[in-house]
Specification:
With 226 residues, the protein is an alpha/beta fold. 43% of the residues lie in helices and 21% in strands. A five-stranded parallel β-sheet has the order 2-1-3-4-5, with helices on both faces.
Length: 226
């Protein structure tokens, strides 16, 4: 349930911070905002958030500094929200342990999709283990691996993300838009044709190894795995 998820907002723009808090609470998340930017680690230790939204330009020390400090004690997911668009800042964000980077101004729905994707990967997959599709084929949530007759199929990062998303919603249709959200966090250029290519490539690998269809299409809606 979303109301069990606590998100910490580290943003010194009071208006934006309030908007983020209201938006997240509207969707059922718990959201706390930081008011004392001189000791963010203490607030973090007290709040025990499941995810942090971290601005870069902050009083006292920047977001890179605080991300590094938090990484010394926790692997909690951190999404940077910043007006900086320089690639060097994005590289620094990842190097300091950030999980994603969203440029201001951004659509709140995009931020919500990224939050949900990271929470799903970080927490749900950690507590879920092996799911058998038949006696010889199973999916390992913890590693996003598909194993057939004790041999792991070689999958790219994009293919694993798509397969993980479909397995996470097993027997339910996942729309193309939802699947494209998963690909936005990879190194590949993402377009509608990119998703089609990844799905086709993944299907060919699965069919070639297992000999039967695993990913199914619901016309006009999306894809699913039975």
């Amino acid at each position: 349930m979303n109301n069990e998820i606590n998100i910490m907002i580290v943003e010194d723009d009071d208006i934006l911070s309030g908007e983020l808090k209201a938006f997240l609470e509207k969707w059922g998340y718990m959201a706390i905002t930081v008011s004392d930017f001189s000791d963010i680690v203490s607030d973090f230790s007290e709040a025990h958030p499941h995810l942090i939204l971290m601005d870069i330009n902050l009083p006292y020390f920047d977001g890179f500094y605080w991300c590094g400090k938090i990484r010394e004690i926790s692997e909690v997911p951190i999404i940077y929200i910043s007006s900086r668009s320089d690639d060097r800042d994005k590289i620094m964000a990842i190097a300091q342990g950030g999980d994603d980077y969203v440029e201001k101004p951004f659509h709140l729905e995009l931020l919500k999709a990224k939050i949900e994707a990271i929470l799903r990967r970080t927490y749900r997959y950690k507590v879920r283990g092996r799911v058998y599709l038949d006696e010889n084929l199973y999916f390992e949530h913890n590693t996003a691996s598909l194993v057939y007759k004790d041999k792991e199929l070689e999958l790219t990062k994009s293919e694993k993300r798509i397969l993980s998303r479909l397995m996470d919603s097993k027997s339910e249709v996942v729309t193309r838009e939802e699947l494209m959200m998963e690909l936005w966090n990879t190194d590949e250029f993402v377009s509608d044709s990119t998703l089609t290519t990844v799905i086709c490539r993944l299907r060919n690998k699965l069919n070639g190894s297992c000999g039967y269809e695993i990913i199914r299409t619901r016309k006009g809606q999306g894809y699913y795995i039975e």
